[in-house]
Amino acid sequence: MKPRAGPVLLIAFIVAACGPQESPTDPDGTWVGTITTEGNVTTVVNESGSVWGGTARLVEEASIGVENGADEYLFGNVGGVWATEDRIYVVDLQVPVVRVYDFLGAHLFDIGRRGEGPGEYKSPWGIATKPNGEIVVSGVGDRLNVYAPDGTPLQTFNLGTSWRFVMPNMFMLSTDGVPYKIVADIANPTPSGFPRTGMQAFGSEGALGEPIFPPSLGFEPWCLEVGILSSGGTYPWCAIPFAPHENTALMPNLDWVVGTTDTYTFEVHHPDGRLTRVSRYWEPVRLSAEEADYHRRRTTADLRQRDPGWTWSGPAIPEHKPAYTRFLPDRSERVWLVREGPSRRQTGDCTDDFSDPDAVRRNYRPCWVGTTFLDAFDADGRYLGEVELPQIAVVSMDVYIRDDVVVVPAYDEAGTIMVKRYRLVLPGER
DSSP assignment of 254-306, as one string? Predict the structure, then answer.
């Protein structure tokens, strides 16, 4: 029910007064925080502890992908993953192909094929299944294909734009089964000069209404200036390693989640006009001088391929990692944040020489790898707890989460790409 304007409603949750209160850095123990509502704005301050009372675990229940073997188990570049009650869907952009497996990882059939005709694709990326069982495959660019549950093509339509994006949260299926695809607003660029991105809904006749865009927080990104050889001008390069940035994600219930990663805060903008502001204590993870130097050398080598005389002049690599890196949509109305912990130096071979950029692009293997955590919040903004991902898990692009089912791309020490299905086990559960 939408709260009425009027006096401030204050709800405070506090641990027993006896004994010392736990450290705010400790996620174990009873959740402690305050929730205040004034008009249509609710503020949630997560002070310590968690609703789960500890760290949850991921128990592996299925693994798909091999180093050598049949083509249907060899992955090149996993873009999208999805799961139903009995199937796992994997989009491999490199082949390209959309593969379907049972819940234990046995291959069943493929969906669509390479091409430009109805039901075909050149660069598939996102995938989802509607409540009626229809399968939606989103391409990089403007194509969207719909298939029957057995993979039979039903419909293909285009957004009518030449913009091609490859980025997280570029495709989403709403709770009621409406697909949303990323679009660009060229007329209203971001502070860094790039097009603002939003989401466009699609129905059986094509685009539904106007695109929707996330509210802007007015964050000024950290950028470096890079020369344009053909014109003599410059352009902003806003991908400084570990620099804070503005993050957005459209959730399946059509909430816009937005935040800037310089602090552990975010906002949830609800379709009915309500606003939930969420914050949590944050202990910054410091970068070692060696790791910072590694990323500085790699960035310098990359930008000198575009501007041979380029030198670093602008914001430096931060001394610590951001509070979080991105939001993950959840099919169960939770909000997940990806957070990076301390890094470790790889013990085997890794790419430490950036003098040959072509070789780096072909065979790059990072020398520093951070521990990855997922932080979960309930629909009210309370901190549920954290989940430490296995070191092999990859969250650079799409991850599927529903109830206790988590499906993520992964890779082993040999670089074999896999897709893993895990069961989320809360503290105290087996």
Answer: S-EEEEETTSSEEEEE-TTS-EEEEEE-----BPPHHHHHHHHHHHHHHHHHH
Let me know: does 248 contact 261? Beta carbons within 8 Å.
no
To the nearest whole number, what is the mean pLDDT of the chain? 87
Q: The pTM is what?
A: 0.88
Contact indicator for 119, 111 with CB cutoff of 8 Å: no
Q: What is the pLDDT of residue 316?
A: 96
Q: Where are the domains of the chain?
A: 66-213+408-430
Q: CA torsion, points 83, 84, 87, 90, in degrees to nearest 10?
A: -30
pLDDT tens digits along 403-422: 999 999 988 777 789 999 99
* 194 alpha carbon, distance to own chain's centre: 20
Question: Which residue shows structure tokens 């804070």?
Answer: 244
Specify the DSSP class assigned to residue 347. Answer: S
Alpha-carbon span 106 to 109, nearest angstrom: 10
Nearest partner of 207 among 254, 161, 158, 174, judged by Cα: 158
Rg (CA), the chain: 22
Provide CATH code, domain 66-213+408-430: 2.120.10.30
pLDDT (tens digit per residue) in 217-233: 989 889 999 998 878 88
Instruction: Tell me the three-class secondary structure of 117-182, residue by residue.
Output: CCCEECCEEEEEECCCCCEEEEECCCEEEEECCCCCEEEEEECCCCCCCCCCCCEEECCCCCEEEE
Answer yes or no: is pLDDT of 22 > 80. no
Q: Residue 10: what pLDDT?
A: 40
